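Priority: low. Protein: UMP-CMP kinase. Input follows.
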Amino acid sequence: MWRRAAKSSSFLPLLLQLPKHDASLPQRFTTGFPFHAPFQEKGGISPKQVAPLITFVLGGPGSGKGTQCAKIVETFGFKHLSAGDLLRREMISDSEYGSSILNTISEGKIVPSEVTVKLILREMEASDNQKFLIDGFPRSEENRAAFEQIVGAEPRFVLFFDCPEEEMVKRVLSRNEGRIDDNIDTMRNRLKVFEALNLPVIDYYSKKGKLYRINAVGTVDEIFEQVRPVFEACEQEAK
Ligand SMILES: Nc1ncnc2c1ncn2[C@@H]1O[C@H](COP(=O)(O)OP(=O)(O)OP(=O)(O)O)[C@@H](O)[C@H]1O
Ligand SMILES: Nc1ccn([C@H]2C[C@H](O)[C@@H](COP(=O)(O)O)O2)c(=O)n1
Ligand SMILES: [Mg+2]
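Result:
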């Protein structure tokens, strides 16, 4: 569907650079990671052939995802990939897609999935870390399906920072980081998009038994004390 829509989109040139399946290429260069390879085999397997541990971090705008990710990185050594940060970086780079991303973010809408997945995949491939916190993604069912299709992997678990709207509005409007979407009009749209597109994804992971709901009201440290045991349990499992 996105491909058809993309025909008249200014995102099209970027979409055309997406990795395509080519049986003559090593899988790593076609789908990013050889997720279906026998990861546990001993000997001769490069670090890139270890299955990555992926955690999605979801929640409404201003719910505190980025703030908590910083603490998770510090405590548990994950690589933090914020989809919004990657898009903002692409937006201010020389990329010809910058203005399309800017318009989409200014309106509080969602950038085509394949663009965002490509940016995430590039960072995953460039990283030596095998533990990824993917923040603000997937924002829609389309995001989720594109990740599964292009990267070929699923998250081990998903965090959901559950925060009341009025608290999110208050936090976003006092964030003061110069973000183009930190204004009341864009925030209203972002909240609508969150409810219409993001909540169904959260529901999907809940039904799969992968969702950890975190009460996102309280101090940063209080909230982190709910997050910590999730990662400690994950570390125990890996031993
Ligand atoms: N527990 C908290 N209590 C009060 N303020 C908080 C708390 N956690 C984060 N903040 C502040 O709220 C603002 C939004 O937090 P943050 O950027 O982490 O949210 P986010 O979920 O990543 O938002 P977005 O989706 O817009 O990127 C920041 O200014 C941050 O310092
Ligand atoms: N999966 C994503 C993530 C982000 N965006 C765009 C639209 C968001 O409003 C904006 C800011 O993201 P945040 O920093 O709040 O995570 O970036 C998107 O289109 N798709
Ligand atoms: Mg954020």
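Strands lie at 53-59, 79-82, 131-135, 157-162, 211-215. The chain has one domain: 56-238.
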